[in-house]
Amino acid sequence: MTDWKNPPRLFIPGPVKVNEDVLQQLARPTLGHRGKEYAQLHGQTAKMLKEIFFTNQNVFISTSSASGIWEAAIRNCVAPDEKVLATCCGAFSDKWATVAKDCGREVDELKVEWGKPTTAEMIDEELATGKYAAITLVYNETSTGVTNPVNEISKMMREKYPDVLVFVDSVSAMVALPLRFDDLGWDVTFASVQKAFAIPPGLAVALVSNRALEKSKGIPARGYYFNFELWAKAAEKDQTLVTPNIPHIMALNYQCEKLLKEGMKNVWERHRQMGEFVRGWAKEKFDLFCEEKYASNTLTTVKNTRGINVAETIGAIQQKHNTIFGNGYGKLKDQTFRIAHMGDITLDDLKELLGWIEDEID
Ligand SMILES: Cc1ncc(COP(=O)(O)O)c(C=O)c1O
Fold first, then answer.
1. Measured in Å, how far apart are the chain's first and last C-alpha atoms?
2. Does ligand 1 have an atom closer than 6 angstroms to the CB of 64?
3. Is the pLDDT assigned to residue 1 strictly greater than 80?
4. Separation of 199 CA from ligand 1 center, angstroms?
5. Is the CB of 57 within 6 Å of ligand 1?
6. Cα of 362 from ligand 1 centre, angstroms
7. Where are the domains of the chain?
8. Which of 63, 74, 89, 92 best tests ligand 1's pocket when mutated (most atoms within 8 Å of CB)?
9. Which fold, 9-17+264-361?
10. Quick count: other Cβ atoms within 10 Å of Cβ 335?
11. What CATH number was assigned to the domain covering residues 20-261?
12. Which of 9, 68, 172, 200 would bridge 140 by S-S if both were Cys, CB 3.0 to 4.6 A apart?
């Protein structure tokens, strides 16, 4: 019998394992959210986030998961009569397109086969029609393990379509993969903290460009909870619009300090090394699901070339070692399996897990 009080060690692509010292931050005495102690916590955290993401623009902390920001980007920054180009390369980018439609906007989908990236050329071809005010893009598609070529896409956008807003879902990328927000020229990007920040779920971090914030002021019916203009007014006072998830912000503060101490280049390199290691194993024992050039440094989607029973293998490892990894997502359930290598997961953790998988399959 599994027991939530004795949970498995997590190698699923989020939530990921959280270290004991981080968990302890969530147990600190609480603060009044309009008091000066909270303002200090908030101000310090926002300042560190600006350093981590190389930005002088707006950093918001949202008591929601990342999906809230999918909706916020659309409702705040796209006028009801404007059109969105939603790039879709897997379950999460597909879902964002649906959410944008649910927000009442007109959306065209640029779809690629699961396992393939969305490229700058594909987007360029669509934007050349002049129909779109904004694009949605996923940095790292967690359902397939593909990292989109965001640098080339961003360069193309800056050069050819500087007026089109760029919204990027960085949920399974933020912190682990390079993200220099101001240089990239993005307008909204975000992640929930249960991925590479290695904090339990319950909070999201969003970066919003000054121009997106300005534009939002003229958009009707933006709602209240996810209203960027109201968020910015609160942020000026080192506060949030509503009572935030303070324990999580304490953990976020703690993780930000650690990241800056390590140095972002080192953090990215650590993730690159973990990605390379797991990919090496996957190629030797199975195969990669996507082209190596686009394979993610935060999770590896392994192509199940040996036809193993994925659910049984995960179940056996859970039973013997109280550890789980991810099955394939949705339609890829048995054709692939996914191993997370982000946040506070280490190479030693990964060696142990891969050894256990080998014991089951060899
Ligand atoms: C790429 C991506 N976008 C969005 C989400 C949704 O995030 P949340 O569940 O925090 O709302 C996920 C969740 O795994 C994801 O991987």
1. 26
2. no
3. no
4. 14
5. no
6. 34
7. 9-17+264-361, 20-261
8. 92
9. Aspartate Aminotransferase, domain 1 (3.90.1150)
10. 18
11. 3.40.640.10
12. 172
pLDDT for 326-352, tens place per residue? 999 999 999 999 999 999 999 999 999
The stretch 138-142 carries a mean pLDDT of: 98
Q: pLDDT tens digits, residue range 314-323?
A: 999 999 999 9
**Over 90: is that where the pLDDT of 266 sits?**
yes
pLDDT reported for residue 53 = 98
Report which ligand 1 atom has the smallest distance to the Cα of 141.
1
- Does 145 contact ligand 1 (Cβ within 6 A)? no
Kindly tell me the burial class for residue 356, based on how many C-beta atoms sit within 10 Å of its own C-beta (0-12, 13-18, 19 or more): middle
Band (2; pLDDT cuts 50, 70, 90): confident
Instruction: Please compute Rg for the chain using Cα positions.
Output: 20
pLDDT digits (tens, 9 = 90+) for 50-90: 999 999 999 999 999 999 999 999 999 999 999 999 999 99
Residue nearest to atom 7 of ligand 1 (CA): 66
How far apart are alpha carbons 92 and 202 in whole angstroms?
A: 18
